[in-house]
Write a structure and sequence with these properties.
Keywords: Carbohydrate metabolism, Cellulose degradation, Glycosidase, Hydrolase, Polysaccharide degradation, Signal. One of its GO terms (molecular function) is cellulase activity. It is a single chain. By secondary structure, the protein is mainly alpha-helical. 48% of the residues lie in helices and 4% in strands. The chain contains 20 helices and 5 strands. The strands form 2 sheets. A 3-stranded antiparallel β-sheet has the order 1-2-3. A hairpin with a 2-residue loop joins β4 and β5. The two termini are 33 Å apart. Bound molecules: 2-acetamido-2-deoxy-beta-D-glucopyranose.
Amino acid sequence: MASSVFSFSLFFFFLLFSFTTSLHLCTAFSAQHSPLRHHLRHPRFAGHNYRDALSKSILYFEGQRSGKLPPNQRITWRRDSGLSDGSAVDLVGGYYDAGDNVKFGFPMAFTATMLSWSVIEFGGLMKSELCNAREAIRWATDYLLKATAQPDTIYVQVGDANKDHACWERPEDMDTPRNVFKIDRNTPGSEVAAETASALAAASLVFRRIDPTYAKLLVTRAIRVFEFADKYRGVYSNGLKKVVCPFYCSFSGYQDELLWGAAWLHRATKNPMYLQYIQVNGQTLGADESDNTFGWDNKHVGARILLSKAFLVQKLQSLHDYKGHADNYICSLIPGTPSSQAQYTPGGLLFKMNDSNMQYVTSTSFLLLTYAKYLTSAHKVVNCGGAVVTPNRLRFIAKKQVDYLLGDNPLKMSYMVGYGPRYPLRIHHRGSSLPSIATHPGKIQCSSGFNIMNSQSPNPNILVGAVVGGPDQNDRFPDQRSDYEQSEPATYINAPLVGALSYLAHSFGQL
Ligand SMILES: *[C@@H]1O[C@H](CO)[C@@H](O)[C@H](O)[C@H]1NC(C)=O
């Protein structure tokens, strides 16, 4: 009795607390680290526990947080870091990109766009994880709002990547230069600007009902940032070559981001001006280009799928061609059809590149499931050189890719840390591999961390939910910490997976 009175008053304290602070607390704390949980709790099911994987895929983002961590931080081996980032301008917050301690604006914006798209399409299926997914987006967009606070200027990077990479340090110990780098009218960067506009526009759709004031701020900023991107055209890796290359050099140019940005602005504002922009500029921006790689650099196929929705669902006839452009991309993925181009490993994983291949697996799975959704609502199919491909076929292909990622592969290895009985133990990640502040409060200097980096010992801190670059073209995975191509996680690997897992958890995973 006494204890229930106690918890009752605790509950009220909690309510009071959540109303009187600006913190946004999610009520479900489901994703504790328990790699064996789904095996113990669901021994009768041979399939995957997509809901568990979904919780973990979102939890991962808390491990990448830079700045002042909130009291409800669930990955507790991390502490505050980067608290003076920005100096003249406040650039505290945002995400560390991957296994290092640099804040790269270009992939961070793409991460925010894809997390937002995940919630826009599949948020209705996320249940208790919806709140956590929104928080993961807000952690990025709060930062992007700071980075775009001055008109015609965007702060696109904090940290010197070469100097950062020369150290193996916890973010909490960082003593490498935290230089800030910006684009402006004289040194433009249309790809990073348009991607930032896409992120802000997409996120405005996520918050439109739940926090209209925030959503308005996001969309207003998105409009201004897109104008800047389009008006002052240029590739940021010209002006900032030494800073952003070879890390996040823009190889595909800015045309893809301008098209993608206009598509997001149209979706967020419904302003016909953007539709007109797409009609006038679509061809020159590469609407039907045949490069089918969708990731932090190239957004062409993302734009095609996104714009096909406006035709398929909203029946905007002027975007008719985008169904064809999207179909061409989809057909390139379907094995056994005349237009098939994609390569798969012997074990069945889509294989595009040696470095961080899993980002293409997650982004492709998301696009397949999203296109399947649009096709279904329009009662349409895809015709691949005479072969009819149904939305369910697309879902089946996406599910197979995600199942491979979660452990249905020759090595029986889950490529998501903390999911399943066997997962990567030596991920290329500074914070995960070094002892935590709690167990080792003393500073670990720049180069002394390399002893641990080069050792065979497993990482002491489990970065739950992190998805690594994955196996090579022959399904092999050495699990070596130095191997950044295969063993490094990155925010843009996880972001589209959040959407794919939400769909799969709803449709196949009511465990
Ligand atoms: C990928 O790795 C394979 C096998 O190690 C190698 O033969 C190939 O050249 C690599 N491809 C690229 C683009 O680096």
